[in-house]
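Page 42, continued from yesterday. The earlier attempt failed because a stray header line got pasted into the input along with the sequence. Redoing it now with the clean sequence only.
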Amino acid sequence: MYIDEDLDKAFRALGDKTRRSILSMLQEGSEETATVFFDAFDSAQPTISKHIKTLENAKLINRRVEGRQHYFQANLLMLKQLGDWVQRHQLLWSGSLDRLEDYLDE
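This time it went through. Structure tokens are written below.
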């Protein structure tokens, strides 16, 4: 189980559209090279490298190095942790809003 600091880093990392896009490119356990990310965005290589590093620091992606090639894959365990957190809070808020609606209807 990840600690709150890890979740904080992950949610902060997801606050950026480019990082969310990079993560979306890694859906369903696919593995991509850094070159794929560099080619996909209209940004300088150092900028994309910084986004990749942020995702790594947030434990949202993992890097595998083979020779000079770097491969990236989504960290499914961290994504599950984020999903579980959101689901817990969604259930909490959903129940609260249902009770509020019932109260207002009375």
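Notes: Helices lie at 4-13, 17-24, 34-40, 45-57, 76-105.
Reminder to self: strip header lines before submitting.
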